[in-house]
Design brief:
The protein is mainly α and 72 residues long. The protein has one domain. 64% of the residues lie in helices and 0% in strands. The longest helix has 29 residues, at 14-42.
Amino acid sequence: MNKLRRMLKSERGQTAVEYIMLLAVMTVLATSILTRFKNWILAPCEINSNSIICMFEKIVGGTDFIYFTLRK
């Protein structure tokens, strides 16, 4: 019984569990942020799209930058 009480009061394994939980939370947050960031940059160009690629295409004029010649 004393051995069980000592084991329950021991804080030896708590730090490992805390680090694992912290790592899990950070992974979920990073995945969420990177998914939103990817959608903000590379979202498909629709009528009211606010992605960076679509804004660049609107400024430059769409397909003007697809074909170009390289000078030697």
